[in-house]
TrEMBL record:
This is C9orf72-SMCR8 complex subunit. Pfam families: C9orf72-like. The lineage of its organism: Eukaryota, Metazoa, Chordata, Craniata, Vertebrata. GO terms for molecular function: guanyl-nucleotide exchange factor activity. It comes from Poecilia formosa. PANTHER family: GUANINE NUCLEOTIDE EXCHANGE C9ORF72, GUANINE NUCLEOTIDE EXCHANGE FACTOR C9ORF72. GO terms for biological process: autophagy; central nervous system projection neuron axonogenesis; endocytosis; swimming; swimming behavior; thigmotaxis. PROSITE patterns: DENN_C9ORF72. GO terms for cellular component: autophagosome; endosome.
Amino acid sequence: MSSGCPPQSPAVAKTEVAVEGECPLLAATFAYWDNILGPRVRHMWAPRGEQPMALSDGEVTFLANHTLNGEILRSAECGAVDVKFFVLAEKGVIIVSLIFDGELKGDKNTCALSVILPQTELAFYLPLHAACVERLTHGIRKGRIWMQKGYNIISVLSLEIAPIMELLASMKSHCVPEEIDIRDTVLNDDDIGDSCHEGFLHKAISSHLQTCGCSVVVGSNPEKVNKIVRTLCLFLTPAERKCSRLCRASSSFKYDTGLFVQGLLKDSTGSFVLPFRQVLYAPYPTTHIDVDINTVKQMPPCHEHTFNQRRYMRSELNALWKTDSEDDIPPETVIYTDETFTPDLNIFQDVLHTDTLVRSFIDEVFLLKPGLALRSAYLAQFLLLLHRKALTLLKYIEDETQKGKKPFRALRNLKADLDLKAEGDLNIVMAMAEKLRAGLHSFVFGKPFYTSMQERDVLMSF
């Protein structure tokens, strides 16, 4: 980044964010199109400390100009957020911009919230792209309400920009590697009774697979936590592993929405409180694993999780819209104001569905000699089996519903034909199929919405 960039006048307002460790993010910017002066950068966030590159005000203006040019005649639905990804090889940066319409000083403007990284961090950032965009998108939803009411959008955006910088810094130092050595996991132990009870391991892996590979592992011993994290990551794809995080031995990270597996340390009192709002906004339901007391709990299945998430999100935005003052409801507050919906803060429940797939895998994998490649090969075969079952389930439902033209009413036949009579087996394969075809749970279980208890009653009746 050098010369040739026009200076910004007046100077860009800047916030420095204190981040522990090396943050790969160069800066985040909020810019808008001024009908007289063109692209204007209203605010810039940058991590505090040494960076591989530094952006001047002129360079930030140049990048804002690049992202906002061509958006003047933007035609989009009200409330739409367009995500654009730029790779500027000549400048050595990548820019992820979220383009949206908002009101500034009573006028409708085209705005852009952007994050800027060095081009060398492209491979590191791509697995985390979806998580970052989803979090920024919801920040924009709240920010547009703040703009409409004449409040300061910068305060709202800062609440999401700073945690994303912390997330990227933590992933830079503690990301799970793409390739995991099975010798660093529980699956390499000769006798799992010493380090991990067999029943606990079975329940942890089974619930992990039932919640689409998303788990939070908490404990007091970082080595034990990380061993379980690496074990669960064996059941993820390489890309999903790069979106998972080991725990830090010195102090605990915060819970981060959008990661697949993350290890968290308890505090000095032996407790760790998960933030309700962030857990509910995760793209998939989550398994909670406590390695100190060997407990496993899980959130409701995908369709119920999505229902609760959307309902709470609407409640939160509605409550923000009804505020009379910028200080009435801080944007991170758990919302209770909607009389029709009171969130249940106890969102984790016991694992009630038993399975045969994981049970058979655990029984058989420990019959093989440890320290050899046999267990790794057997694990790969098991994952291939689950993937093929998920593809078969999708094809089965597609044929029965004429590619979605009619509702699915053959659940009993599906369970018998695909040998998924155990509810845990069905949940595992359905979860894998959900990642291949989003919305599958909602389509199969249909409307009206089933709670977990009603769903179990339905399954038991077949």
